[in-house]
Structures are given as C-alpha cells and as structure tokens.
Amino acid sequence: MVKKSWVPYFFLSPYILFYLAFGLIPILFSFYVSLTSWDGISSRTFVGLDNYKFLFNQDSYFLLSVGNTLLFVVLTLPLQIIFGLIIASLLYSRWVKWKGFFQLVNFLPYIVTPVAVGLMFNLLFDWQAGFVNKLLLHLGLVDEAVYWLGDPLYARMVIVLMLFWKGFGYTMIFYLAGLANIPKDLNEAAQVDGASFLRIFMSITLPLLKPVTVFIVITGIIGGFQLLEEPMMLLGGSGMGSSAAVIGGPDRCCLTTVWNMYDTAYGSTTRYGLGAAIAYGLCVIIAVFSFIGARFYRGEQQ
C-alpha cells in the first residue's frame, strides 16, 4: 500500500485552521449560547430550550418578523421576475441598440450597497424634505405631505418598491444568460410554421427558461430572509422623528427576521441567548426552503 502523503494536508491546513477559528467553533458556540440566558457581561445561565419556546411568544416578535419577511418576498419576487424577464427579452431582441449600456444601467442598482439604498430611499420619501412629497405637492396630486414612513401600509409599499428597484437587474442578468442558451433553430422553425412572437414566447421561451426561474426563486427566497440593511437604514435614517424609536417601523410592520435578531442580541435588550435562538430559527427556515427548492430544481433537471 502506498503511504498517504502529508503534503496536501499541509497546504490545506491554513484553510482548515481559519474555518475552525472563524467558522465551526463560532457556530457551535452560538448554539450553546442559544441554550443559555446571557447578556454578554454576566455569567451564562443554562436554560435549555426556553429561548426556542419563547420564539413562539408574541413578545419575541419572531413570528411577526417572519411574516413580514415572507410578505416582502411574496410581493417583491414576482415583480422582479416579471420585469426582469421583460427587460431581458427586450435587450436580447434585435430591435434594441446599445444593449451593453442598457444592461449596465439596469444592473447597477443591484451592486449598490444596501446601506446606500436604504439611505437614498429615506431621503426620497422623507416626510418634510423628501423629493417624492415635493414632486406630488408641486403637481397638485396631494394637498399635504404624505408621511410615507410613518404609516404601516405606505412603509411596506416603499420597502417593496426599494427591493424591486434593487433586485430586478439580478433577474435580468440570469434571464439574459438563459435566453442565450436557447437554440435559435427552435424560434426560427416556429416562425417558419407561422407562429406569432407571443406564441413563441409562451410555448418555447418560457418553458425553456423554467430552470432559470426556479433558481431565481430559490435564491430570492434565501436572500429575502437575510434582509436587514435596507429597511433598517430606510426607517432609521434622518427625518424619521418619533417613529424611529420603534424598531421595525410603525407597529413593527417592517421588522424583518434578521433585524429582530440584531435588535434582540445587540440592540435595546442585549439578550444574546434569545438572539442566537432567533438566528437558528432563521437557519431552519432557510434550510427548509433550500431543501424544497433543491428537490424541485433537481426534478426539473431530470
């Protein structure tokens, strides 16, 4: 038998050490913290599964934050898919010139940092000095400034608009790649048979783009559950007034799961144990959606 060489393990050792120090050990430690009551200063008290049981209590805001996050995903993701597909189809067609320029313009919002996006929309929809209110007043569409970020319905509408503006370029890029992989012979054969553009799009393009759509849905759900900076900066920026004191906006209507975890562990309460439990609850939710999506995607590939 040939003796195994230690050289590969020597070159892998930096990655293994970094993963142990900054990956595996923090994961295991955070799980232990989720089983304790700890404020980061005093000694830790083992409480078992009490933190996980408390997640289903109304005072933890966990179920509320999960519901808010799901609402944003359900409202935003279909808009991103529809609009991204339309833009991708137009850019892929032969009628549009300067395709590279329009691809860049539509994709730029996606690479803007979340903090900058949140602050920008905060300035746009500010109650007193926001551009949107000034425009509406100038056009005579409203009699007084609308408190966009102080009303639960309007605040959610602003977040959906913000997430849609930021994310549709992501779907556009993937649909462009999917369109490029569709054999042109299929479209040409359909045109020869007299099929209209709409018929070709519905019968050939959409079915062949189904794996791309499934991938976008899976990654969109996972990314949606990690939502934090955009609503935090939007509702915590300048011009918020007294509503900024309420974490998650008015009536906590915009409190996302990660925001709830952050505020619980590092905000006003400093409850590391409960914050870690929220993080693991979120991990389970993402794992379930990822498992379902992976099974569905594998079924589409077969």
TrEMBL record:
Keywords: ATP-binding, Cell membrane, Membrane, Nucleotide-binding, Transmembrane, Transmembrane helix, Transport. It holds the Pfam family BPD_transp_1. PROSITE patterns: ABC_TM1. It is found in: Cell membrane. One of its GO terms (cellular component) is plasma membrane. InterPro entries: ABC_transporter_permease, MetI-like, MetI-like_sf. This is Sugar ABC transporter ATP-binding protein. It comes from Paenibacillus abyssi.
